[in-house]
């Protein structure tokens, strides 16, 4: 049986891709400043590169788990980690202010895209698809109920 993704799950994939590209471009644009800040804080100067790999890997893993493997638990993990990320951004707002308004605006847009991606997964078609592990038709066991 082929898993046909509902429109909401396909939209999730597009939004996650957009958020990933936006975040990686932001990290590339501010690479010098982020590297200098990491050096001043006694961290590795490779921190911006590690952040790019982290964002790409993190979003790729969740995209595979949710959009390809139809994992409902991955959806809930993504919701929790997105919420924790937003709280972390609020607690670390001074660092964002130091990098300037364009950085803040771009980060807010990327964060809103991530929130939108999670929200799309709670639409009726995506919710049903994920709760039934990628099956859109009724299960044979449910036919006689």
Description:
The chain is an all-alpha fold and 145 residues long. It has one domain. The chain is built from seven helices and no strands. The longest helix has 23 residues, at 7-29. It is elongated. The model has no long low-confidence stretch (mean pLDDT 91).
Tell me the series of helices and strands, N- to C-terminal: HHHHHHH
The structural domain count equals 1
Helix content: over 70%
Low-confidence stretches: none
User: What's the tally of helices?
Assistant: 7
Distance between the termini: 22 Å
What is the β-strand count?
Answer: 0
Shape: elongated
Average pLDDT across residues? 91
The SS-based structural class is mainly alpha
Radius of gyration from CA coordinates: 18 Å
Strand content: under 5%
Largest sheet: none
Short description:
The chain has about 140 residues and is mostly helical. About 75% of the residues lie in helices and about 0% in strands.
